[in-house]
Amino acid sequence: MKRVAIVGAGPSGLSQLHAFQSAANKGIKIPQIVCYEKQSTWGGLWNFTWRTGVDEHGNTCHGSMYKHLWSNGPKEALEFADYTFEQHFKKPIPSYPPRPVLLDYISGRAEKAGIGRYIRFNSNVRDVRYDVVKAKFTVTARDCLKDREVIEDYDHIIIASGHFSTPNVPYYDGFENFSGRILHAHDFRDAREFSGQDILIIGSSYSAEDIGSQCSKYGSKSVTIAYRTKPTGYNWPPDFSEFPSLLCVKNDKAYFKNGYSKKIDAIILCTGYKHHFSFLPDDLRLKTENRLATSELYKGVVFNPNSAMFYLGMQDQWYTFNMFDAQAWYVRDIILGKIVVPDEGSRVLDIVTRQKAEERLVDGQAGVCYQGAYISELINETDCPRFDVNATNRAFIEYIGHKKKGIMTFRDNCFESAITKKLAPTYHTCWTEAMDDSLDSYLKK
Q1: Which of 41, 210, 353, 375 is in the most buried spot, having the most CB atoms within 10 Å?
Q2: Share of the chain above pLDDT 70, in %
Q3: In CATH, what number is assigned to the domain containing residue 246?
């Protein structure tokens, strides 16, 4: 019997377990599966920890989650086709849930499927090697509770550890003498820490938008966004400013490319993350930019240098949970022998073709449709639970319009589920005034 290792029990790793369990439920013989998870529970980045730097076992802290995070896209765009929000919560809920609600939803599906038996929690993968002669992957993991190494061989390995945990940290002249705090978004935990302060955010993508919004919501004095290429283009509140690139910092003042300077109290680096896999040797390590069509991955999942190895969720993402499902079912069917992986030349051509198509995209709306078409392609080759991709594309495009209209109010809108066809109810409090993001507060009528 084949043996399969999965690294990570976050949303993409759980999707892979659901895919195998779905096959087993239909009477198909599946491989022996071990899913390694360094945290004590599933959910990946949707778990919150107050820790930064290292975890309780001395391992690098994986989590980038912070308090009061709400979904930055409508839940209808990530809903599982075989497990709706209404099915889980026994009633329709609003379109923008906070973190505890989404984690509860992910957990509910996993509990219903009974996939926890495949997961080794508190198990940190330290090293992976591939033996060409034996055609086996050797995985070395540390059992953090027993403080011992476990070494096992597998026929396939699936990397589902995500790519939002190793921060990209740039340096600017004067950082070492700055009188305030400098941190990356990876270590941001609570916007209330910056109440009454003048905050400088470096970067202009999703984390910059959201952390800036959070700081404003929870009482920062002002928020300045320093962008590298172009401003965000959103209609920010009066306490926001956008300046071109930061040049340097001198004591407590930041100096910008346009000649402006400003006194600041803290700097938050929203400068993205690296595809970094410290447990992998060079010959097994994915090397790609953060883009919709990843380098080195045939069909976005098969590692081209070694087609017995797979990566999930490594793309820049409009879609998330439902894309992970589509990828997981596709990988499962390769391992089960239902899908044949072509020769290396054909795999290279697939990657090049996808990347050239991505380079022709003109805006975010085109990117949504591009990724939606990719998901449809994978789903059509498997028995992955289906959903209306075109309807989901339209939801994303509508959401883009809402953000342009009001970056602080877009979460107050409602969307129709592509699965149940029901319109979500309006939340009882507008987002800027909703300070309690607990599960109980969110679900109350």
Answers
A1: 375
A2: 100
A3: 3.50.50.60
CB 155 within 8 A of CB 5: no
Locate 348 and state its tokens.
């290279």
For the chain, give the mean pLDDT. Answer: 95
Instruction: Note the pTM of the prediction, 2 decimals.
Output: 0.95
Residue 217 φ/ψ, nearest 5 degrees: -60, -40
The answer on 221 and 112 residing in a single domain is no
Q: Which two tokens stand for residue 169?
A: 């940290």
Considering the domain architecture, whether residues 115 and 248 belong to the same structural domain is answered as no
CA triple 164-167-168, angle to 5 deg: 120
Buried/exposed 265-304: b ≥16 CB within 10 Å, e otherwise: bbbbbbbbbebebebbeeebbbebebebbbbbbbbbbbbb
Please state the φ and ψ torsions of residue 57, each to the nearest 5 degrees. Answer: -100, 5
- HSE-up of residue 392 (Cα within 13 Å, Cβ side): 30
Query: Could you tell me the residue range of the domain that residue 261 belongs to?
Result: 175-266
Angstrom distance (rounded) from CA 393 to CA 116: 32
Q: Based on the fold, state whether residues 12 and 121 are members of the same structural domain.
A: yes
